[in-house]
């Protein structure tokens, strides 16, 4: 059913996004946010004050609804009218892999007597503080040499 054939009561039962879908479907062209919402306000008999008060929430609802796509020219259109191309940027992933590999490399302490070695539990505060102390000692020994 066309929007112009619907009564005001029928229009009021529809959500803004449903009305937007119908407007874009009937016009068969993309439109910007203010133009679409102005058409909706005209259909529902809203004043300029109501238009100003509600346009922000309307924009948010458009961004959430998967039926619509925001084009480069800041106009909305139906997702059905556009094919979506997914581009995967491998360069960014490679940089993250390098950083993660560098983070995994740890300096090994010089030599530790067999008596000082115990099982290290990273959740145990005593064990983690021992590791920090060993690292500090190892750093100081390197500076002295």
List the helices and strands and how they pair.
Elements: H1 8-12, H2 16-27, E1 31-32, H3 33-44, H4 48-64, E2 68-70, E3 75-78, H5 90-104, H6 125-144
Antiparallel strand pairs: 1-3, 2-3
How would you characterize the overall build of this protein?
The protein folds into two domains: 3-81, Arc Repressor Mutant, subunit A (Orthogonal Bundle), CATH 1.10.10.1250; 104-144, no CATH class. It starts with 7 loop residues before the first helix and ends with a helix. The protein has six helices and three strands. A hairpin with a 4-residue loop joins strand 2 (68-70) and strand 3. It is mainly alpha-helical. The model has no long low-confidence stretch (mean pLDDT 77).
């Amino acid at each position: 059913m066309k929007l112009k054939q619907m009564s005001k009561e029928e229009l009021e039962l529809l959500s803004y996004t449903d009305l937007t879908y119908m407007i874009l479907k009937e016009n068969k062209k993309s439109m910007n946010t203010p133009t679409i919402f102005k058409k909706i306000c005209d259909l529902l008999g809203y004043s300029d004050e109501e238009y100003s008060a509600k346009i922000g929430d309307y924009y948010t609802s458009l961004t959430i609804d998967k039926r619509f796509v925001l084009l480069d020219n800041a106009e909305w259109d139906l997702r059905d009218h556009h094919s979506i191309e997914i581009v995967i940027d491998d360069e960014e992933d490679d940089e993250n892999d390098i950083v993660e590999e560098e983070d995994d490399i740890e300096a090994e302490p010089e030599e530790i007597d067999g008596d000082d070695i115990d099982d290290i539990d990273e959740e145990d505060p005593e064990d983690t503080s021992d590791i920090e102390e060993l690292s500090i000692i190892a750093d100081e020994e390197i500076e002295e040499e």
